[in-house]
Write a structure and sequence with these properties.
CATH superfamily: MetI-like
CATH topology: MetI-like fold
Helix content: over 70%
Structural class: mainly alpha
Order of helices and strands: HHHHHHHHHHHHHHH
Distance between the termini: 62 Å
Number of strands: 0
CATH architecture: Orthogonal Bundle
Number of domains: 1
């Protein structure tokens, strides 16, 4: 008896079965979603980074491609006092601002995590310094720090705390402190809101159990809040350190590296040498010299997270 042709099911080919299993795989789906982002990173991050590394080994200038000169740019920077001053300024700026942003941001996050009236309104207000464009913030601080018309100096004089106006941006020590204060004001909202989001994930039952056991407010923070918030702190401070270390706009608008190179960061010095001065190779070498510091910050955060995961009983 002949079998009807409709009952015969064609056997799927190996290719169609492979495509079907690939479409059903969650890993493959995730990889497909990541492809556009990976392509953008490849075009707008990997290529400029590779070009910068290459330019650091050349004597390229604006309008001239240059030739390969090996490590001459780095040898020159090794003996350049201004470059080492910019390294010192960058580390001082990053460490001081990051510590202050963490301390004040954590304190603000703990306050905003309480049951306060108009809590949503205050959370929105806190974000304003972060939302305002950096250049506008820098211009506002430039007026606040103005040698003649500083509102800060005027207020301090009216309160009788000083008898003459403060030269905020003309004195090297004052200029360093002034740019750090401006960066802290701008960066606190990012730290505070991110840590506040972490605080929201901590179960209240843990606080209630610790309170029943007689824990004080400090012990609640030390043994409940801080350990559970550590992974969020590591990620938040990694981004904060990266943003601070590579800061350019705030310094460029306020001081342009002055006075007497006292506020020159590696980013601003790279721009001055490479773009304003036309020495593309030297400017690229300064930018490349920033990479080890950035990698150190990322690795510190990564190993910190791994250590925290091991303490909590997690695997690799």
């Amino acid at each position: 008896m002949a079998v009807p042709s409709a009952a015969v099911q064609p056997r799927p080919s190996i290719l169609s079965r492979s495509l079907s299993s690939l479409a059903e795989s969650r890993n493959a789906l995730g990889f497909g979603f990541m492809l556009p982002a990976a392509a953008l990173l490849l075009v707008f991050l990997t290529y400029p980074l590779g070009l910068g590394v290459w330019l650091g080994f050349t004597d390229a200038r604006i309008g001239r491609p240059g030739i390969f000169i090996g490590l001459e740019n780095y040898e020159y920077l090794w003996s350049d006092a201004v470059f080492w001053l910019s390294v010192f300024n960058t580390l001082l700026y990053t460490i001081s601002a990051s510590i202050l942003k963490f301390a004040l941001g954590l304190w603000l996050a703990l306050i905003l995590n309480q049951n306060l009236p108009f809590k949503s309104f205050f959370r929105a207000i806190v974000l304003l310094p972060w939302v305002v464009p950096t250049v506008l913030s820098a211009i506002a601080f430039w007026w606040i720090y103005d040698a003649q018309f500083s509102i800060l100096s005027w207020a301090l004089q009216q309160m009788g705390l000083i008898d003459h106006r403060i030269n905020f941006l003309g004195d090297p020590t004052n200029a360093r402190a002034s740019v750090i204060a401006a960066n802290v004001w701008r960066g606190i909202p990012f730290v505070a809101i991110t840590l506040l989001a972490g605080l929201q994930t901590i179960p209240q039952s843990l606080y209630e159990a610790a309170t029943l056991d007689g824990a004080s407010r400090w012990q609640l923070f030390r043994y409940v809040t801080l350990p559970l918030l550590t992974p969020i702190i590591a990620i938040t401070m990694t981004f904060s350190v990266l943003f601070t270390f590579t800061d350019f706009q705030l310094i460029y608008v306020l001081t342009r590296g002055g006075p007497v190179n006292a506020t020159h960061l590696m980013a601003t010095l790279s721009f001055q040498r490479g773009i304003s001065g036309g020495q593309l190779g030297e400017g690229a070498a300064i930018a490349v010299a920033m990479i080890p510091f950035l990698l150190a910050a990322i690795l510190f955060s990564y190993f910190g997270l791994q250590r925290r995961k091991w303490q909590q009983g997690g695997g690799d």
